[in-house]
Each structure stands twice: as C-alpha cells, then as structure tokens.
Amino acid sequence: MKKRLLPLGLISSLNSVAWAHDPSPVERPNVVSVAFAYGYVPAAAEHANGAHGQFVPGIAVDYFRRVLPRLEAGVMGHLELARYVIPRKDALERDRALLVAFVGSYSITDRWAVVMGPGYEIERHKSFPIFRLGAEYRLPWEGERFIPLGLFYDLKEGYNAWSVSTGVGIEF
Question: Which residues face 159 on adjacent strands?
Fold first, then answer.
C-alpha cells in the first residue's frame, strides 16, 4: 500500500508547487538532449567472470516540455550497452535493456533541477516497472544550447542502479 501512495504523493506535491507559480507563457518550451551515460549496478555480476558490481555504459535521449517556468514534463529514454546478470534464485539476465521513464522535472535554480517519475525497463528476458529519481545541472553553452550533467537513481525489481550522464541539449 505504501508503494502505491509514494508516487501519488510526489505527483500531488509537484501539482501544488506548479499552481503556486505565475502561469505566464513560457519561452522555448521544448527541451531535447542526447547524452552518454555510465551506470553502476551493485548487485550485478559480469556475464563472463561472475565478479560483483557492474559498470554499464549507455546512451540517453530525453525530451521535456516546459509547462511552467520551473516545471517540465518529459520522457527519458536510456539504452544500456552491456550484458550482465543479477544473481538470485532465478538469475535475472539483462542484455541491452531499454529504460523509458515518464518524469516531472522541477527547477530549483536556473541551472539545477530534480527529476522523478515512473517508467518501464524493456528487455528480452524480463521487463518490469521502475521508478527514477535524479538531479540535473544544465551548463549553458551557446545560445539555446546547454550541456546536461545528470545523476540518477533507478529503483528496479529486486535491484537498484546509479547512473551519471553528460551530453548536449537544446531548448527551442
């Protein structure tokens, strides 16, 4: 029961924060970024040698739509570029899993934002729901372009994973 209430409480909190701001029109409401990510899965074993803890490279593509000056809704896609196993009673194989999360992003400052939302990890052996939490720093680059620096924590079925990412983005 508590697992169901947590996402509902977070969404309602974001909703109340969103309505507290001035609903003026937003300049450049679309945000797209492409990033290289590097994750760490503490519970994983490398496919070949069984060593615990696995670093997993990946590629991320994100799209956000700014609905208020400090609030964005978006989709985050993350493709893992590795194979590993989560050792447990029924060993869980992960082979190039695709994570898709529908998230909300709230800008604490002009450059820092917190991100959270539910998603789904799609993989040929077993797919399941996830919940993503994170923070992102947007380093201004040139005009509407920026360099996103992200830190994310994914809560998954039976294990969790950390990831960091950096890439390029544009607001339009």
Answer: 156
Per residue in 52-83, pLDDT (tens digit) is 788 999 999 999 999 999 999 999 999 999 99
Question: Would you state the pLDDT for residue 9?
Answer: 53
Residue 62 near residue 104 (C-beta atoms within 8 A): no
Please indicate, yes or no, if residue 15 is contained in any of the structural domains.
no
* Chain segment 126-137, per-residue pLDDT in tens: 999 999 999 999
Tokens 């609030």 correspond to what residue?
A: 71
Alpha-carbon gap, residue 47 to 167, rounded angstroms: 28
Count how many domains the chain has: 1
Residue 20 lies in a domain: no
- Cα–Cα distances in Å, from 17 out to 12, 21, 40, 141? 9, 7, 32, 29
The pTM score is: 0.80
Has residue 19 been placed in a domain? Answer: no
3-state secondary structure of 14: helix
* Domain annotation covers residue 32: yes
What range defines the domain where residue 158 resides?
28-171
